[in-house]
Amino acid sequence: MSNTITVRLPKELSQWLEKEARRTGLPKGRIVREQLEISRTRQARQAFLDLAGSVEGEPGLSQKRGFQR
């Protein structure tokens, strides 16, 4: 793994990262990578929620005969 980026952090975020690194004993880079992964995973799970409520049909369709389980 050798992809390097430089990011300028606002003071508050930098302080949070520093405290989190001290609290957990983890390197700051690892914390940043883990948070990026969490964000990426959350977005992937969110995609299917965009479809919620998009199904069209008669109201009460699941209550009609033959559609119940």
Structure summarized in a few sentences:
With 69 residues, the protein is mostly helical.
Please report the distance between the alpha carbons of the first and last residues.
51 Å
- Morphology: elongated
Topology as a string of helices (H) and strands (E): HH
Average residue-wise pLDDT: 81
Enumerate the spans where pLDDT stays under 50 for 5 or more consecutive residues: none
Radius of gyration: 22 Å
Discrete helix count: 2
The biggest beta sheet is recorded as: none
What is the strand tally?
Answer: 0
Quaternary organization: single chain
SS content category? mainly alpha
In what range is the share of β-strand residues?
under 5%
Can you give the helix content as a percent range?
40-55%
Task: Report on the architecture of this protein.
This is Ribbon-helix-helix protein CopG domain-containing protein. The protein has 69 residues and is mainly α. The model has no long low-confidence stretch (mean pLDDT 81). It has a domain of 33 residues.
Annotation keywords:
elongated; mainly alpha; single chain; 69 residues; 52% helix
Layout of SSEs?
Layout: H1 11-24, H2 28-49
Protein name: Ribbon-helix-helix protein CopG domain-containing protein
